[in-house]
Amino acid sequence: MITEMNANSFATHSLNDPRISRILSAALEAVNPAEAVRRHLPKLDGKVHGLGIGKASIPMLTALAEAVPLSSSLAISKHASSLNSNLFPVLVGGHPIPDSRSLVAGERVLEFVSSLSKNDTLICLISGGGSALVTAPYEGISLEDMQTLTSLLLSCGAHIDEINILRRQLDRIKGGGLVRATKAKVISLILSDVIGNPLETIASGPTVHDPTTREDALAVLKKYGIEKQIPNSITTFLESDSLLSDIEKQASRFQSQNLIIGDNKLAAQAALEQAELEGVHSEILTNELQGEAREVGLLLAKKLRDEISKRQRPFCLISGGETTVTIRGNGKGGRNQELALAAVNELRDLENVMLISLATDGEDGPTDAAGAVVTGESARRAESLGLGAADYLYRNDAYLFFKQLDDLLKPGPTGTNVNDLVFLFKI
Question: Which of 82, 137, 273, 380 shows the greatest Cβ crowding within 10 Å of its Cβ?
Fold first, then answer.
């Protein structure tokens, strides 16, 4: 977890500068979910119930349980953790593809919130990953159908906001469904993992009015040419009149309070401030980084090359956001690793430079790595081992490439989740 991190959490073959490790640590510490809950907790009266959904649910709900006597509570997370110390029950769901555990969690969540009365207050602690960890498809749509749809959307390069349009239309919890299922007053404290912090997209907006329609969902399928590959049950459902009416959706709009308590901007700003303390001149380039990971990686590497002659060293340029990967090969990796791999040849032979791409949750794609580190020596080192960066990129096999260079970042699950950060260093 974040509180256990030290300089060694980020150590790789190439990353052995404690200044850089402290900068990375500062970014994650700034979005410590427990501290964020403590800072933003409102004054509460009467019976209070806590529900945590997402990768940061356990530390968030722990902070709430320690601050407020809870009448009941429940957390749904990607990992079990010793952090909760039996303060509340924890269910584990599947991620990034929902599984049978996600289905169980979805039914448990609906039972939990529907048992509350109008005199109760429900504090929802929402973080990224919640869309897959908790699922409750409408009747006629099976778990297998949702798994097929999710896999297709993840592999075709769809953006997270587009994926969550489909999820909101097909799930009883998402798109304000949680609010519709309870009589309690709902207050949501939200850790954002989505560019621009659109409330309806974070964990697919269980406590937020859904501004999109079934036509929008069908348009996403058509955009990526996968409408004929998805299960018939989903197409039939989206084309039917069985979805909630606009009036029913509107009913959830005014029944909850939603507050963002941490995001990518906060993490990037903390990294910048730590860099300045380390004597490293810094600038945040953007918090809206998006696009194909391999294209973004090349552009950022060129940016680093171009800035070397323009800036006083040492310097650090910080970008935040979330890229996508269109899977073409059969390799292993994630968007941060692929972004880094695309930068290898562009940074060839540059002295004292480093590109670091980091998933703030500590998990990049279906791997145990959070990202990777690239220096001006990476291309030469790879070639000495018989590795070609372009070949591995073609196969979407960034994990194996960086594993052989010993330059995978492996801090472990961090307990937070606010998108990705990319650092460009000239030391």
Answer: 137
